[in-house]
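Continuing the series of single-chain predictions for the mutant panel. This is the parent chain; the variants come on the following pages.
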Amino acid sequence: MARCTRTTNLEVHHKRRDGSNDLSNAIVLCQTCHEKSSTYGSPGKTPTAFDQATKDKALRHAGNQCECTSTQGCHLKKLHR
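Parent structure:
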């Protein structure tokens, strides 16, 4: 199964909760892949939201598509309807 390449409902996710709020700590994920990430909604430190400029840069860098590389089912078609 190929990785997710969704281009709608995109969110900018922190790679590391304790990392910076700059582009090097940002990854673009569709809402479904974001919710399936290991830290989404889990207790602990919640990072400060990215500013709009960083979000815009991350989206451009990602080609405006999900950057999830998992092939473990986080992006099954039935989840993206």
